[in-house]
Amino acid sequence: MANDTNLPTTTNDKRVDPNSGFDPQTKIFHSLRPAVPLPPPSQPLSLGHYALSVLRSSSADDTNFLSSTPVLIDNSTGRHVSYYLFLRQVRSLSLSLLRSLSLSTRHSSTTAFILSPNSVHVPVVYFSLLSLGITLSPANPLGSDSEIAHQIRITRPDFAFATSATAGKLPKGLRTILLDSPEFLSMLENNDEESEDVVSQWPKVRQSDVAAILFSSGTTGRVKGVVLSHRNFIANIAGFHEQRLKLAEELAAAAAEQEPQPQPVSLMILPMFHVFGFFMAVRAVAMGETMVVIERFDLEGMLRAVERHRVTYMPVSPPLVVALTKSEVVGRYDLSSLRLLGCGGAPLGKEVVEKFHQKFPDIEIGQGYGMTETAGIGARMVEVEETKRFSSVGKLAENMEAKIVDPVTGEALSPGYVGDEKATAETFDPEGWLKTGDLCLFDSEGFLHILDRLKELIKYKAYQVPPAELEHLLQSHPDIADVAVIPYPDEDAGEIPMAYVVAPYKKVRRVAFINSIPKSPAGKILRRELINHALSSGKAKL
């Protein structure tokens, strides 16, 4: 999969199938979306400044909107942060950092490590660092000491942001700013006029500069630090901006017949240190939306937040869709404002989607597919009709190209990992194509289908069994709350499927019952942990 952010992908070539986007000569699938214009690569521009320019280019750029519309709502306290206050805090923090850290004029080599749960301060920190050209690297605050030490070792940060609860996991010699300290709050209230010396230090950020080092979920080994440029994210934000412009034109054309649209309100239950949460936070600001921030997820707390704040949209992972479908407590809350779930992070079974729509006929599920290495976007659903393709994750995103290759021969049916040349070589081919490690197919209409993780296929005799297929089947049972399938060693077959089941009744013989399935922050099953659990009792012939 590749994203050429210099030259928009087109499907005008006569060789390219207009239905699927497939070029039989190059064996490349091209995006069927209209090419999205991007700023010239040579133009100095940070992701933060681009996102704010998108905000200002919309009708939202008026004094009344900026002063009265909240960009952030703290779900635990109810505190509202207006767009006007948010912009002022970003500018104030940027000036404070320039003055206090004695940063050089070129900040692209400066890195800030961030270890914090979700809060209304985290997006302010992100936009400030991005505008200054400082590479940000957020990590899981619940990560183990050894994992965080590994992340510090490969990113080599110059300073860090943390909280009183997480700072103890950082090296003692690392300059750390606590987000829950008076020092940080004072940095948000720097009202001094910009002096000439500070203005002269304001950096010119190149789009090719590193915006963030985000960590992969580590489902197949130790987490890797993925290097992503400002332009990587700018290209993805541009696609959403173009979609919004098209929607605005359609609404304007039908203004006489349509009621005014409510302010979009999204619920940020995703961790903002993950690429999915990071991108959705930046996207929400660029789109002029309101984000309700939840520090720690629990199902009923989320349902209360949807009811209280009239949430219209939620980015979610597949396990939450399963939980909403099967939970009995959902009926106690008013979810009538909810219109769309943006689902990604792992395959979502067709049966689950169908049962979800039976329970929530007015809520659409827009599936998408991406990786940390693709800045969170690869394919997605845009039109309402596309959400009806339950087994798909949508069409290739704007300016995207993809290949389906033989996993053995590599035949077709740059940026990389920081501090890990071996992983980079294994993941990118000599032509720069990203090997996603997913078992995929495109259908005749250009919709992408994710069947499973290639590395997680179970080798049963001469057959390859996708765990996700069995998981989807088991999840369809009403008495199974959650499930994960792993390979288990077998003398005759090599490997057999073993299921870990969360269920009230132990009705099936060849399963292991467990209180909860271990998953990454993005909702991916951590099969390696389950495999270690299964093997800890010794191999067996089943």
UniProtKB/TrEMBL annotation:
Residues 469-503 form the AMP-binding enzyme C-terminal domain. Signal peptide: none annotated. The keyword Cell wall biogenesis/degradation does not apply. Residues 70-419 form the AMP-dependent synthetase/ligase domain. Residues 1-20 are annotated as: Disordered. It is found in: Cytoplasm. The keyword Lyase does not apply. Residues 1-11 have a biased composition (Polar residues). Keywords: Cytoplasm, Ligase. GO terms for molecular function: CoA-ligase activity. InterPro entries: AMP-bd_C, AMP-bd_C_sf, AMP-binding_CS, AMP-dep_synth/lig_dom, ANL_N_sf. Coiled coil: none annotated. Belongs to the ATP-dependent AMP-binding enzyme family. This is 4-coumarate--CoA ligase. It comes from Ficus carica. The lineage of its organism: Eukaryota, Viridiplantae, Streptophyta, Embryophyta, Tracheophyta.
